[in-house]
Structure formats: C-alpha cells, structure tokens
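Figure 2 data, in text form.
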Amino acid sequence: MIIAGVAVGAVALSGLFAGVAAQAFKGHEPSTATATPSGDAAAPAGPTTGEDASPLEPPSQPPSAADPRDSAPQPEPQVSGGS
C-alpha cells in the first residue's frame, strides 16, 4: 500500500507542476501526445531526399593547407621545481 500511495502522490505532484508550468509559460501552446497530424502536416519539415535533388559537387579547387604562422603560439610547458 505504501508504494501505491507514493505513486499516487507522484502523479498528483506532476499534475500540479504541469499546471504551474502552464501558468508560467502562457505564451506557448500546450502540445498533446494524443494529437496526430494529418495530410501534409504529417510530413517532416526537414530536407527531402527526392529524385529532383541535385547531387553534391566537389569544389573546383582543393582547400589550401593552413599556414603554421597563422596559428596561435603554443605555451611553454611549465617545469616544476620539484623537491
């Protein structure tokens, strides 16, 4: 019985916190897990991989190597005085 009481309490607290969060973020519309989009709304908004997409082309010139003088100087290693 103790486990059931703890579970009921946890569900009640999560509902309470959801209500508080809904009041804190009034500008956002709540999303429900049971809502299912239909038609075109069910399609993902990401890029498509259809046949009409042009393939990637390599660059006309390969990238040049970085100049070592342009990189930040490496700090000198610290040497401990020891004991």
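Caption note: The chain has a mean pLDDT of 76.
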